[in-house]
Known about the structure:
The complex is a heterodimer of chains A (258) and B (217). Helix content of chain A is 39%, strand content 12%.
Amino acid sequence: xxxxxxxxTPEQLAERKYQDDALRAENLARLSRSLAALRRELASVxxxxxxxxxxxxxxxxxVPAGNPDGGQWTDGGGTSEGNDGDSAVSVTFVAPGxxxxxxxxxxxxxxxxxxxxxxxxxxxxxxVERTSTILHDTLTRxxxxxxxxxxxxxxxxxxxxxxxxxxxxxxxxxxxxGSRGIEQSFDANGQTRYGKDGSIRTDxxxxxxxxxxxxxxxxxxxxxxxxxxxxxxxxxxxxxxPDVPVIEMHSLRGPVRR
Amino acid sequence: MSRGVxxxxxxxxxxxxxxxxxxxxxxxxxxxxxRGFLIETTTEKGRVYLWRVVTPLxxxxxxxxxxxxxxxxxxxxDVYIDQNAYEKxxxxxxxxxxxxxxxDYLKRIREPHxxxxxxxxxxSGSPLRARxxxxxxxxxxxxxxxxxxxxxxxxxxxxxxDEGRKVYIGPVMKQVLQALDGGPGDLKPLLDQWVSQNxxxxxxxxxxxxxxxxxxx
Lengths: 258, 217
Protein backbone atom coordinates (compact mmCIF):
# COMPACT_ATOMS: atom_id res chain seq x y z
CA UNK A 1 0.00 0.00 0.00
CA UNK A 2 1.35 3.40 -0.94
CA UNK A 3 1.91 5.69 1.99
CA UNK A 4 -0.08 8.87 1.97
CA UNK A 5 1.94 12.02 1.45
CA UNK A 6 1.26 14.61 4.12
CA UNK A 7 1.73 18.27 3.28
CA UNK A 8 2.03 20.70 6.09
CA THR A 9 2.03 24.46 5.99
CA PRO A 10 4.91 26.33 7.67
CA GLU A 11 2.51 27.22 10.47
CA GLN A 12 1.61 23.57 10.98
CA LEU A 13 5.27 22.61 10.98
CA ALA A 14 6.05 25.30 13.53
CA GLU A 15 3.17 24.12 15.72
CA ARG A 16 4.40 20.52 15.42
CA LYS A 17 7.91 21.55 16.41
CA TYR A 18 6.53 23.47 19.35
CA GLN A 19 4.57 20.44 20.51
CA ASP A 20 7.57 18.15 20.08
CA ASP A 21 9.78 20.51 22.05
CA ALA A 22 7.20 20.82 24.79
CA LEU A 23 6.86 17.05 25.05
CA ARG A 24 10.60 16.62 25.11
CA ALA A 25 10.92 19.20 27.88
CA GLU A 26 8.17 17.46 29.81
CA ASN A 27 9.90 14.09 29.42
CA LEU A 28 13.14 15.60 30.56
CA ALA A 29 11.56 17.14 33.62
CA ARG A 30 9.96 13.82 34.58
CA LEU A 31 13.24 12.04 34.00
CA SER A 32 15.05 14.54 36.13
CA ARG A 33 12.63 14.00 39.02
CA SER A 34 12.95 10.24 38.69
CA LEU A 35 16.72 10.51 38.62
CA ALA A 36 16.73 12.65 41.74
CA ALA A 37 14.66 10.01 43.52
CA LEU A 38 17.01 7.26 42.37
CA ARG A 39 20.01 9.22 43.59
CA ARG A 40 18.45 9.67 47.01
CA GLU A 41 17.76 5.97 47.26
CA LEU A 42 21.23 5.00 46.15
CA ALA A 43 22.82 7.45 48.55
CA SER A 44 20.72 5.96 51.30
CA VAL A 45 21.88 2.45 50.45
CA UNK A 46 25.47 3.58 50.36
CA UNK A 47 25.21 5.23 53.75
CA UNK A 48 23.66 2.14 55.21
CA UNK A 49 26.28 -0.16 53.78
CA UNK A 50 29.16 2.01 54.82
CA UNK A 51 27.72 1.94 58.28
CA UNK A 52 27.45 -1.84 58.17
CA UNK A 53 31.03 -2.08 56.95
CA UNK A 54 32.15 0.09 59.85
CA UNK A 55 30.45 -2.31 62.20
CA UNK A 56 27.38 -0.23 62.90
CA UNK A 57 23.90 -1.60 62.94
CA UNK A 58 21.86 0.82 60.81
CA UNK A 59 18.70 -0.28 62.56
CA UNK A 60 20.12 0.85 65.83
CA UNK A 61 18.50 4.18 66.77
CA UNK A 62 20.60 7.34 66.61
CA VAL A 63 20.75 10.46 68.71
CA PRO A 64 18.73 13.10 66.86
CA ALA A 65 20.50 15.83 64.93
CA GLY A 66 20.97 18.96 67.01
CA ASN A 67 22.03 17.01 70.08
CA PRO A 68 25.78 17.29 70.88
CA ASP A 69 26.02 13.60 70.07
CA GLY A 70 23.83 13.96 66.98
CA GLY A 71 24.15 11.20 64.42
CA GLN A 72 25.82 8.78 66.82
CA TRP A 73 24.34 5.37 67.32
CA THR A 74 22.85 4.79 70.75
CA ASP A 75 21.98 1.73 72.78
CA GLY A 76 18.36 2.19 71.92
CA GLY A 77 17.48 4.12 75.04
CA GLY A 78 16.39 7.76 75.09
CA THR A 79 14.21 9.46 72.58
CA SER A 80 15.84 8.66 69.25
CA GLU A 81 13.57 8.61 66.24
CA GLY A 82 15.83 6.62 63.96
CA ASN A 83 16.66 7.72 60.43
CA ASP A 84 15.94 11.19 59.21
CA GLY A 85 15.54 13.11 55.99
CA ASP A 86 16.43 11.44 52.72
CA SER A 87 17.71 8.31 54.36
CA ALA A 88 14.11 7.47 55.18
CA VAL A 89 13.36 6.90 51.48
CA SER A 90 12.53 3.26 51.04
CA VAL A 91 14.94 1.09 49.11
CA THR A 92 13.03 -1.25 46.88
CA PHE A 93 15.45 -2.59 44.36
CA VAL A 94 19.02 -2.84 45.56
CA ALA A 95 20.05 -6.12 47.04
CA PRO A 96 22.08 -6.02 50.25
CA GLY A 97 25.81 -5.99 49.74
CA UNK A 98 25.98 -3.54 46.87
CA UNK A 99 28.10 -0.48 47.35
CA UNK A 100 27.76 2.25 44.81
CA UNK A 101 30.68 4.41 44.11
CA UNK A 102 29.55 7.98 44.43
CA UNK A 103 32.61 8.58 46.53
CA UNK A 104 34.85 6.45 44.33
CA UNK A 105 35.86 7.96 41.00
CA UNK A 106 36.83 4.66 39.41
CA UNK A 107 33.88 2.31 39.02
CA UNK A 108 36.15 -0.69 38.68
CA UNK A 109 37.65 -0.04 42.09
CA UNK A 110 34.23 -0.44 43.59
CA UNK A 111 34.21 -4.02 42.38
CA UNK A 112 36.55 -5.03 45.12
CA UNK A 113 33.67 -4.39 47.48
CA UNK A 114 31.39 -6.89 45.85
CA UNK A 115 30.90 -10.10 47.76
CA UNK A 116 34.26 -10.04 49.45
CA UNK A 117 35.76 -13.40 50.18
CA UNK A 118 33.95 -15.38 47.51
CA UNK A 119 35.68 -16.80 44.43
CA UNK A 120 35.75 -15.04 41.08
CA UNK A 121 32.97 -17.00 39.41
CA UNK A 122 30.66 -16.51 42.33
CA UNK A 123 31.62 -12.86 42.58
CA UNK A 124 30.89 -12.28 38.90
CA UNK A 125 27.58 -14.13 39.09
CA UNK A 126 26.53 -12.08 42.09
CA UNK A 127 27.47 -8.87 40.34
CA VAL A 128 25.48 -9.83 37.24
CA GLU A 129 22.45 -10.73 39.28
CA ARG A 130 22.49 -7.53 41.29
CA THR A 131 23.24 -5.32 38.34
CA SER A 132 20.41 -6.91 36.36
CA THR A 133 18.03 -6.08 39.17
CA ILE A 134 19.20 -2.49 39.33
CA LEU A 135 19.07 -2.05 35.58
CA HIS A 136 15.61 -3.49 35.33
CA ASP A 137 14.31 -1.26 38.07
CA THR A 138 15.96 1.76 36.47
CA LEU A 139 14.49 0.87 33.09
CA THR A 140 11.02 0.50 34.56
CA ARG A 141 11.26 3.93 36.09
CA UNK A 142 12.70 5.49 32.96
CA UNK A 143 10.05 3.90 30.73
CA UNK A 144 7.33 5.31 32.91
CA UNK A 145 8.70 8.82 32.46
CA UNK A 146 9.09 8.77 28.70
CA UNK A 147 5.84 9.74 27.04
CA UNK A 148 5.21 8.48 23.54
CA UNK A 149 4.35 11.17 21.03
CA UNK A 150 0.94 10.50 19.51
CA UNK A 151 2.21 10.14 15.97
CA UNK A 152 5.71 8.83 16.65
CA UNK A 153 6.79 5.42 15.41
CA UNK A 154 7.68 2.51 17.65
CA UNK A 155 11.30 3.00 16.58
CA UNK A 156 11.30 6.65 17.65
CA UNK A 157 9.80 5.74 20.99
CA UNK A 158 12.47 3.06 21.37
CA UNK A 159 15.17 5.64 20.67
CA UNK A 160 13.70 7.99 23.27
CA UNK A 161 13.72 5.23 25.91
CA UNK A 162 17.29 4.24 25.02
CA UNK A 163 18.42 7.86 25.28
CA UNK A 164 16.75 8.42 28.63
CA UNK A 165 17.98 5.09 30.02
CA UNK A 166 21.55 5.85 28.99
CA UNK A 167 21.36 9.30 30.52
CA UNK A 168 20.25 7.98 33.89
CA UNK A 169 22.89 5.24 33.88
CA UNK A 170 25.67 7.68 33.07
CA UNK A 171 24.59 9.72 36.00
CA UNK A 172 24.38 6.74 38.35
CA UNK A 173 27.91 5.64 37.40
CA UNK A 174 27.32 2.06 38.50
CA UNK A 175 30.22 -0.22 39.48
CA UNK A 176 31.54 -2.23 36.55
CA UNK A 177 29.67 0.01 34.12
CA GLY A 178 30.65 3.60 34.82
CA SER A 179 30.33 5.86 31.80
CA ARG A 180 32.47 3.69 29.58
CA GLY A 181 30.14 0.68 29.70
CA ILE A 182 27.18 2.56 28.26
CA GLU A 183 26.48 2.78 24.52
CA GLN A 184 29.75 1.17 23.53
CA SER A 185 30.58 0.05 20.03
CA PHE A 186 32.79 -2.90 19.14
CA ASP A 187 34.18 -4.43 16.02
CA ALA A 188 36.50 -7.39 15.60
CA ASN A 189 39.53 -5.22 16.51
CA GLY A 190 38.13 -3.99 19.81
CA GLN A 191 36.15 -1.02 21.02
CA THR A 192 35.43 1.54 18.38
CA ARG A 193 33.26 4.53 17.68
CA TYR A 194 29.55 4.46 16.97
CA GLY A 195 28.68 3.87 13.35
CA LYS A 196 31.92 2.26 12.17
CA ASP A 197 31.45 -0.32 9.42
CA GLY A 198 31.01 -3.79 10.82
CA SER A 199 30.59 -2.58 14.38
CA ILE A 200 27.85 -3.38 16.84
CA ARG A 201 26.49 -1.12 19.55
CA THR A 202 25.83 -2.41 23.05
CA ASP A 203 23.46 -0.67 25.42
CA UNK A 204 25.27 -1.68 28.60
CA UNK A 205 28.35 -3.77 29.23
CA UNK A 206 29.23 -4.99 32.71
CA UNK A 207 32.86 -5.71 33.53
CA UNK A 208 34.60 -7.26 36.50
CA UNK A 209 37.65 -5.84 38.18
CA UNK A 210 39.94 -7.46 35.61
CA UNK A 211 38.06 -5.60 32.88
CA UNK A 212 36.55 -8.79 31.58
CA UNK A 213 33.05 -8.47 30.19
CA UNK A 214 30.73 -10.51 32.39
CA UNK A 215 27.35 -9.46 30.98
CA UNK A 216 25.99 -7.66 27.96
CA UNK A 217 22.64 -5.89 28.27
CA UNK A 218 20.48 -5.08 25.29
CA UNK A 219 17.45 -2.88 25.80
CA UNK A 220 14.30 -3.73 23.87
CA UNK A 221 10.95 -2.01 23.59
CA UNK A 222 7.68 -3.25 22.12
CA UNK A 223 7.78 -6.76 20.71
CA UNK A 224 11.46 -6.78 19.79
CA UNK A 225 13.60 -9.58 21.18
CA UNK A 226 17.22 -10.69 20.87
CA UNK A 227 17.60 -13.65 18.53
CA UNK A 228 20.36 -16.28 18.88
CA UNK A 229 22.39 -14.84 15.99
CA UNK A 230 22.30 -11.34 17.49
CA UNK A 231 23.34 -12.74 20.87
CA UNK A 232 26.22 -14.58 19.22
CA UNK A 233 27.29 -11.46 17.32
CA UNK A 234 27.28 -9.42 20.52
CA UNK A 235 29.50 -11.96 22.25
CA UNK A 236 31.86 -12.32 19.30
CA UNK A 237 32.38 -8.62 18.65
CA UNK A 238 32.80 -7.72 22.30
CA UNK A 239 35.27 -10.56 22.75
CA UNK A 240 33.14 -12.00 25.54
CA UNK A 241 33.19 -15.73 26.10
CA PRO A 242 30.38 -18.08 25.06
CA ASP A 243 29.17 -18.31 28.66
CA VAL A 244 28.77 -14.58 29.10
CA PRO A 245 25.06 -13.82 29.40
CA VAL A 246 23.42 -11.53 26.89
CA ILE A 247 20.54 -10.12 28.86
CA GLU A 248 17.53 -8.67 27.17
CA MET A 249 16.12 -5.74 29.11
CA HIS A 250 12.44 -4.96 28.70
CA SER A 251 10.45 -2.85 31.10
CA LEU A 252 7.47 -5.23 31.09
CA ARG A 253 9.02 -8.62 30.41
CA GLY A 254 11.92 -8.14 32.82
CA PRO A 255 15.52 -9.29 32.29
CA VAL A 256 15.78 -12.40 30.10
CA ARG A 257 19.00 -14.29 29.40
CA ARG A 258 19.62 -15.10 25.77
CA MET B 1 33.15 17.93 7.27
CA SER B 2 32.22 16.16 10.49
CA ARG B 3 31.29 18.03 13.64
CA GLY B 4 34.35 16.60 15.34
CA VAL B 5 36.68 18.04 12.72
CA UNK B 6 35.00 21.46 12.92
CA UNK B 7 35.39 21.49 16.68
CA UNK B 8 38.98 20.27 16.71
CA UNK B 9 39.96 22.78 14.03
CA UNK B 10 38.89 25.51 16.37
CA UNK B 11 40.64 23.94 19.34
CA UNK B 12 43.96 23.01 17.75
CA UNK B 13 44.88 26.67 17.21
CA UNK B 14 44.95 27.26 20.94
CA UNK B 15 46.30 23.96 22.12
CA UNK B 16 50.05 23.77 21.62
CA UNK B 17 51.48 20.31 21.15
CA UNK B 18 48.45 18.98 19.33
CA UNK B 19 47.86 18.32 15.64
CA UNK B 20 44.65 17.55 13.81
CA UNK B 21 45.04 14.23 11.98
CA UNK B 22 41.86 13.39 10.08
CA UNK B 23 39.21 13.66 12.78
CA UNK B 24 41.51 13.09 15.74
CA UNK B 25 43.21 15.74 17.82
CA UNK B 26 46.58 14.09 18.28
CA UNK B 27 49.16 14.82 20.95
CA UNK B 28 52.47 14.92 19.10
CA UNK B 29 54.79 13.21 18.58
CA UNK B 30 53.33 9.85 17.60
CA UNK B 31 55.74 6.98 17.84
CA UNK B 32 54.32 3.54 18.56
CA UNK B 33 51.43 4.77 20.68
CA UNK B 34 48.96 7.38 19.52
CA ARG B 35 47.50 9.75 22.10
CA GLY B 36 44.82 12.32 21.61
CA PHE B 37 41.13 13.13 21.63
CA LEU B 38 38.25 11.84 19.56
CA ILE B 39 34.61 12.77 19.30
CA GLU B 40 32.05 10.02 18.99
CA THR B 41 28.52 10.77 17.88
CA THR B 42 25.50 9.31 19.62
CA THR B 43 21.87 8.70 18.70
CA GLU B 44 20.88 11.79 20.68
CA LYS B 45 20.91 14.96 18.66
CA GLY B 46 23.91 17.11 19.48
CA ARG B 47 25.26 14.87 22.23
CA VAL B 48 28.70 13.38 21.75
CA TYR B 49 31.19 11.35 23.71
CA LEU B 50 34.61 12.92 24.07
CA TRP B 51 37.37 10.34 24.34
CA ARG B 52 40.84 10.69 25.79
CA VAL B 53 42.58 8.21 23.55
CA VAL B 54 45.57 5.97 24.12
CA THR B 55 46.07 3.34 21.43
CA PRO B 56 49.07 1.15 20.67
CA LEU B 57 49.71 1.07 16.94
CA UNK B 58 51.63 -2.21 16.77
CA UNK B 59 48.83 -4.46 15.72
CA UNK B 60 46.56 -4.24 12.68
CA UNK B 61 43.32 -2.32 13.12
CA UNK B 62 40.69 -0.91 10.83
CA UNK B 63 39.97 2.08 13.08
CA UNK B 64 41.46 3.54 16.24
CA UNK B 65 40.59 1.10 19.00
CA UNK B 66 39.33 2.57 22.26
CA UNK B 67 40.04 -0.32 24.61
CA UNK B 68 42.53 1.76 26.60
CA UNK B 69 40.77 5.07 26.28
CA UNK B 70 38.51 7.00 28.59
CA UNK B 71 35.39 9.03 28.08
CA UNK B 72 35.80 12.48 29.57
CA UNK B 73 34.69 14.12 31.72
CA UNK B 74 34.52 10.98 33.81
CA UNK B 75 31.92 12.52 36.10
CA UNK B 76 29.57 15.36 35.49
CA UNK B 77 27.40 16.49 32.65
CA ASP B 78 27.05 15.27 29.11
CA VAL B 79 28.91 16.85 26.21
CA TYR B 80 26.92 18.57 23.49
CA ILE B 81 27.87 20.27 20.25
CA ASP B 82 25.60 23.10 19.24
CA GLN B 83 25.60 23.30 15.47
CA ASN B 84 24.64 26.94 15.72
CA ALA B 85 27.48 27.79 18.09
CA TYR B 86 30.60 25.84 17.18
CA GLU B 87 32.95 28.37 18.78
CA LYS B 88 31.16 28.08 22.10
CA UNK B 89 31.04 24.28 21.92
CA UNK B 90 34.75 24.16 21.01
CA UNK B 91 35.61 26.32 23.98
CA UNK B 92 33.65 24.02 26.30
CA UNK B 93 35.39 20.94 24.91
CA UNK B 94 38.77 22.61 25.13
CA UNK B 95 37.97 23.29 28.78
CA UNK B 96 37.29 19.60 29.36
CA UNK B 97 40.53 18.61 27.63
CA UNK B 98 42.52 21.00 29.78
CA UNK B 99 40.76 20.05 32.99
CA UNK B 100 41.85 17.32 35.35
CA UNK B 101 45.24 17.04 33.66
CA UNK B 102 44.05 15.05 30.64
CA UNK B 103 46.49 16.66 28.23
CA ASP B 104 49.43 16.38 30.60
CA TYR B 105 48.55 12.76 31.25
CA LEU B 106 48.68 11.95 27.55
CA LYS B 107 51.96 13.78 27.12
CA ARG B 108 53.49 11.37 29.60
CA ILE B 109 52.56 8.29 27.54
CA ARG B 110 55.09 8.40 24.73
CA GLU B 111 56.68 4.99 24.62
CA PRO B 112 55.60 1.37 25.06
CA HIS B 113 56.90 1.36 28.65
CA UNK B 114 54.56 4.28 29.38
CA UNK B 115 51.74 2.26 27.87
CA UNK B 116 52.52 -0.55 30.31
CA UNK B 117 52.09 1.91 33.15
CA UNK B 118 48.83 3.11 31.62
CA UNK B 119 47.52 -0.47 31.42
CA UNK B 120 48.80 -1.67 34.77
CA UNK B 121 45.35 -3.17 35.40
CA UNK B 122 45.91 -5.93 32.83
CA UNK B 123 46.19 -9.31 34.54
CA SER B 124 45.97 -12.97 33.68
CA GLY B 125 42.18 -12.84 33.69
CA SER B 126 41.92 -9.76 31.49
CA PRO B 127 40.40 -9.91 28.00
CA LEU B 128 42.44 -11.78 25.41
CA ARG B 129 43.03 -8.74 23.21
CA ALA B 130 44.35 -6.83 26.22
CA ARG B 131 46.75 -9.62 27.13
CA UNK B 132 47.88 -9.80 23.52
CA UNK B 133 48.67 -6.06 23.46
CA UNK B 134 50.35 -6.44 26.83
CA UNK B 135 52.62 -9.21 25.54
CA UNK B 136 53.57 -7.25 22.41
CA UNK B 137 54.35 -4.22 24.57
CA UNK B 138 56.58 -6.28 26.83
CA UNK B 139 58.39 -7.51 23.73
CA UNK B 140 59.01 -3.93 22.62
CA UNK B 141 60.35 -2.83 25.98
CA UNK B 142 62.87 -5.65 25.94
CA UNK B 143 61.20 -8.33 28.05
CA UNK B 144 61.57 -10.62 25.06
CA UNK B 145 61.64 -14.03 26.71
CA UNK B 146 58.59 -13.40 28.90
CA UNK B 147 56.76 -11.83 25.98
CA UNK B 148 57.39 -14.80 23.70
CA UNK B 149 56.26 -17.23 26.38
CA UNK B 150 53.07 -15.22 26.88
CA UNK B 151 52.44 -15.02 23.13
CA UNK B 152 52.83 -18.77 22.70
CA UNK B 153 50.38 -19.38 25.55
CA UNK B 154 47.97 -16.94 23.95
CA UNK B 155 48.39 -18.77 20.65
CA UNK B 156 47.18 -21.97 22.27
CA UNK B 157 44.27 -20.10 23.78
CA UNK B 158 43.33 -18.58 20.44
CA UNK B 159 43.38 -22.04 18.83
CA UNK B 160 40.67 -23.11 21.24
CA UNK B 161 38.34 -20.21 20.50
CA ASP B 162 35.25 -20.79 18.43
CA GLU B 163 35.36 -19.46 14.88
CA GLY B 164 33.34 -16.32 15.59
CA ARG B 165 35.89 -15.04 18.07
CA LYS B 166 38.86 -15.99 15.93
CA VAL B 167 37.90 -13.73 13.04
CA TYR B 168 40.39 -11.02 13.92
CA ILE B 169 42.78 -12.41 16.50
CA GLY B 170 43.32 -15.75 14.73
CA PRO B 171 45.16 -14.44 11.64
CA VAL B 172 47.01 -11.77 13.62
CA MET B 173 48.25 -14.30 16.15
CA LYS B 174 49.30 -16.60 13.34
CA GLN B 175 51.48 -13.89 11.82
CA VAL B 176 53.08 -13.17 15.19
CA LEU B 177 53.88 -16.80 15.88
CA GLN B 178 55.21 -17.32 12.34
CA ALA B 179 57.52 -14.33 12.80
CA LEU B 180 58.74 -15.72 16.13
CA ASP B 181 59.48 -19.07 14.47
CA GLY B 182 62.20 -17.23 12.55
CA GLY B 183 63.80 -16.06 15.80
CA PRO B 184 63.02 -13.66 18.63
CA GLY B 185 64.21 -10.67 16.63
CA ASP B 186 61.96 -11.37 13.68
CA LEU B 187 58.85 -10.05 15.37
CA LYS B 188 60.10 -6.48 15.49
CA PRO B 189 59.94 -5.83 11.73
CA LEU B 190 56.37 -7.12 11.69
CA LEU B 191 55.34 -4.78 14.53
CA ASP B 192 57.10 -1.86 12.83
CA GLN B 193 55.26 -2.67 9.63
CA TRP B 194 51.92 -2.57 11.47
CA VAL B 195 52.87 0.75 13.06
CA SER B 196 53.68 2.20 9.63
CA GLN B 197 50.43 0.92 8.15
CA ASN B 198 48.39 2.40 10.98
CA UNK B 199 50.23 5.72 10.79
CA UNK B 200 49.27 5.95 7.14
CA UNK B 201 45.72 4.65 7.57
CA UNK B 202 44.88 7.11 10.34
CA UNK B 203 46.69 10.03 8.71
CA UNK B 204 49.14 10.42 11.57
CA UNK B 205 52.19 11.33 9.49
CA UNK B 206 52.08 14.99 10.52
CA UNK B 207 52.37 14.00 14.15
CA UNK B 208 55.47 11.84 13.67
CA UNK B 209 58.71 12.99 15.27
CA UNK B 210 60.74 15.02 12.77
CA UNK B 211 63.99 13.15 12.91
CA UNK B 212 66.76 13.15 10.36
CA UNK B 213 66.62 9.40 10.26
CA UNK B 214 63.41 7.55 9.82
CA UNK B 215 63.33 5.11 12.68
CA UNK B 216 60.71 4.53 15.30
CA UNK B 217 62.97 4.08 18.30
